[in-house]
Every structure is written in structure tokens, then in C-alpha cells.
Write a structure and sequence with these properties.
The chain has 221 residues and is of the alpha+beta class. The chain is built from seven helices and eleven strands. The chain has a four-stranded antiparallel β-sheet with strand order 1-8-3-6. Helix 2 packs across helix 3 and helix 3 crosses helix 4.
């Protein structure tokens, strides 16, 4: 069963309760509305756990282009790598989110003394790295359904940052983005709409079920 603050379903799930309690006492709960920026790459040594909702994790290229790395859902960490380096990522709330921000200095200090916590952090890093690899594989070799679902989630927050679940984008633009024909993309969009994930209007797409769309990107056809 998940704890009230969501730590029981996170990488802290199998860490000693006394250690988790110590971390929880120094952590701060933040609430973000859909479209809010959760963290930027300028915020060093920033680590948190998503306890509800979904956030888009991204980095910004030197040219200013946002590159989506993955989508963090409840139980997933954001910025876990900042526990081991000064590097950070950016994140934006796709849906309304609750975030448990950890005291990074405290977690590092506890991990030096507790092998269970150190192993949990290493495992979480491995999971997040695998997620990023999977995102790259979907973009390069995924089915059209996977690439389309992933592209829609990437556009969420990029096209209309204040309303990440809505985007003014045409079927033609999506087809160009995923390297397919407009008619084929339109068929897949219609299928996603019939499955309750999207709402299609002329020149506008609304993501109704972002978590379902994220699962569709992972499952494929």
C-alpha cells in the first residue's frame, strides 16, 4: 500500500523505515498545476519524487530546443542523477502534479551510511537510464502508433506551454514529425480517440488520458 506521501511506491519502497522517515521529515511537498514548470536545469542538486500526476522531463539543447527524455508518473523520481553530480534536468507538469522534493544533501549523507539506500538510488538511476534508452529506441525504431503517441506527449507543453494537454497542431504536421503519410496518421489518431486517449477537433488535439497515451507508446500496436 502506498504511503500518504507516495514514498512507498517509489525507490524508497524497500529502504529501512527509519531511514525513509528521516528523509520524509526533511522533504517538502509541492503542488503544481498543469503547465507549470517544476524544475529547470539551472536548479542544481534538485531531486524529487512524483507522488501524483505526470510530468514531462526534458533538457534544452544549446540552440534552445526542448528534448523530451521521458514522462515521470507517480512513484518515479525526477533529478535522481543530481544526487551524484551537479547536472540537472527540467520538468513540466503535464497534468496537475504533487511533487515530494527531497533534501539532496541529507539523502547523500544517509546513503553514505546506509547500503540499502545507496543500492536503492543506484537501482533508480538504472531504471531512469533504461527509460531514456527506451524513449530513444521508440523514436528510432518504434511502430507508428508508438512514435505518434510519443510525439503527442512531446508536443504537450512545447506547443502551448500553459495548456500542455491541448495543442494547435494539424494531422499534416504530426505526419511530418513522425515520418508518415497524413492519411495513415489520421487513422491512428482516430483509433486513439476511440480508445479515449484523445479528443480531435479541427486544427486542435486534446490529450484526455496522458498516462494511457504514455502506456500506448511503450506497448506499441
Amino acid at each position: 500500500m502506498a504511503s500518504r506521501d507516495g514514498t512507498a511506491q517509489s525507490f524508497l519502497e524497500h529502504v529501512e523505515p527509519a531511514v525513509v522517515d528521516a528523509i520524509r521529515q526533511r522533504s517538502v511537498v509541492h503542488h503544481f498545476r498543469s503547465g507549470d514548470i517544476v524544475v529547470t536545469e539551472a536548479d542544481r542538486s534538485w531531486t524529487a519524487i512524483v507522488t501524483s500526476g505526470m510530468a514531462r522531463v526534458f533538457v534544452t539543447s544549446p540552440g534552445g530546443r526542448q528534448v523530451t527524455l521521458r514522462h515521470a508518473r507517480a512513484g518515479s523520481s525526477i533529478g535522481i542523477g543530481a544526487l551524484l553530480s551537479d547536472n540537472s534536468v527540467s520538468a513540466q507538469a503535464v497534468t496537475d502534479c504533487t511533487i515530494l522534493k527531497l533534501d539532496s544533501d541529507q539523502v547523500r549523507e544517509l546513503a553514505r551510511a546506509d547500503a540499502g539506500l545507496a543500492l536503492a538510488i543506484a537501482d533508480e538511476l538504472s531504471q531512469r537510464l533504461f527509460e531514456t534508452y527506451r524513449e530513444l529506441a521508440i523514436r528510432e525504431q518504434g511502430s507508428l502508433r508508438q512514435r505518434l503517441a510519443r510525439q503527442l506527449l512531446h508536443f504537450a507543453g512545447v506547443i502551448e506551454p500553459e495548456q500542455p494537454l491541448q495543442m494547435a497542431v494539424s494531422h499534416e504536421q504530426l505526419a511530418d514529425a513522425v515520418g508518415s503519410a497524413r492519411e495513415v496518421v489520421s487513422r491512428h489518431l482516430g483509433r486513439l480517440q476511440s480508445e479515449g486517449m484523445l479528443e480531435l477537433q479541427r486544427g486542435r488535439i486534446t490529450i484526455v488520458d496522458p498516462e494511457g497515451l504514455d502506456l500506448a507508446a511503450h506497448r506499441g500496436d
